[in-house]
Design brief:
Shape: elongated
Strand content: 15-25%
Oligomer: single chain
Distance between the termini: 18 Å
Radius of gyration: 22 Å
Length: 362
């Protein structure tokens, strides 16, 4: 199969880019011809080393640029001749829709960020991939037909992106609690800092490591200072690959208020962390609905603190949840993601035929 992915850019530290790059490299490994058309970025070298072709399409949302970009995409499609185009963001879907219509090529879209109002534009696809069951339900409520929607849960284990990563754990004090994510309100960092303040009063040896960057960074640092236990909270900043911190951490916490299917859950499970996540969007599904990690309500720092205290109080309980992180972990491989995505492509490519007055799919 010849597959063309379309996305805004290929720069690191962006979840939907990581997911698209992982998928493209795995599809190539499985024998497909694969191309990524984007604004370019620092993953292009990785794509080239994995024999994934690249083409440039400017995704700026300016009227004249949009027209030129659609024409550029049409040129790339005529030259590269994909069997299917897979758009990963709203701008990409808008660019691809007229090109696919003119070229007779099916358009598959993936809803990575369903909390954005513009995510409804992903309904332009012949088929729409939802990255979790929760996202599928949400998109149906917003008017996208259930017949179009297919759930392909995110997974990262075995990706080309991590092929050469360092496997040595970071040097962390213990017991260690780790957060990895963007420093903005959606990730619930305020709740985590408040919960840590509560547990630190009883477990003063505990340390919190916050990995990531974002617009709220300085505000969160000030909040940490105000807790009175700021010396026990370390803001690490953004890391190209935080896996060494995951390998070293005792507990991984993702206190998100909204999160369609965060890739870091897959990575933390691979690292055998005991995991606490909130009961929002795709997090429960990634944690096997509570079998592979502890689930707490969002915006409830007191309940998050209680879950942390349970793990800090008893090393046996901590080890038990570290082992539970491995329950059905094979479901989080990139190979499974690629194979299920190929099934969606074949569904989109199926040609309808008419028998009398009855329309059937071949």
């Amino acid at each position: 199969m010849r597959i063309m992915h379309l996305l805004n850019h290929t720069y690191r530290l962006n979840g939907h880019v990581h997911a698209a790059v992982d998928l493209a490299c795995e599809q190539r490994r499985l024998g497909h011809e694969v191309c990524i058309a984007s604004g370019g970025g620092d993953f292009d070298e990785l794509l080239a080393s994995n024999h994934v072709a690249t083409r440039i399409v400017n995704h700026e949302r300016k009227p004249l640029t949009v027209l030129r970009s659609v024409a550029t995409l049409k040129h790339h499609v005529n030259e590269w001749k994909p069997d299917v185009i897979h758009a990963h963001m709203m701008t990409s879907a808008v660019f691809a829709y007229p090109v696919c219509k003119l070229s007779g090529i099916p358009l598959v879209t993936t809803v990575h960020n369903e909390f954005e109002k513009s995510a409804i534009l992903m309904g332009l696809g012949t088929r729409v991939i939802a990255v979790s069951e929760s996202v599928s339900r949400s998109m149906q409520q917003r008017g996208i037909s259930a017949k179009k929607l297919h759930v392909v849960l995110n997974g990262t284990i075995g990706t080309a992106r991590f092929a050469n990563r360092q496997a040595a754990p970071a040097d962390l004090a213990h017991p260690s609690i780790l957060f990895v994510g963007g420093l903005h309100p959606r990730k619930g960092v305020v709740d985590l800092i408040q919960a840590f303040k509560t547990v630190h009063a009883t477990y003063p040896a505990a340390r919190l490591f916050i990995v990531g960057g974002g617009p709220m960074g300085e505000e969160y640092r000030e909040l940490a200072r105000q807790t009175g236990c700021g010396d026990a909270i370390t803001f690490v900043g953004s890391l190209e690959d935080p896996y060494s911190y995951m390998l070293a951490a005792d507990i991984f916490v993702l206190p998100s208020l909204a999160d369609p299917a965060p890739l870091v859950i897959s990575e933390a499970r691979e690292a055998r962390c005991a995991i606490i996540g909130t009961k929002v969007d795709g997090i429960p599904q990634l944690l096997e609905f509570g079998e592979a990690g502890i689930l707490v309500p969002p915006s409830a720092p007191e309940m998050l603190a209680a879950a942390l205290a349970d793990l800090l109080a008893d090393p046996a309980t901590l080890r038990e949840w570290q082992e539970k992180s491995q329950i059905r972990i094979d479901n989080l491989t990139i190979e499974r993601v690629a194979l299920e995505t190929t099934t969606v492509y074949r569904s989109a490519m199926a040609k309808p035929k008419f028998i009398g007055a009855t329309r059937q799919a071949v």
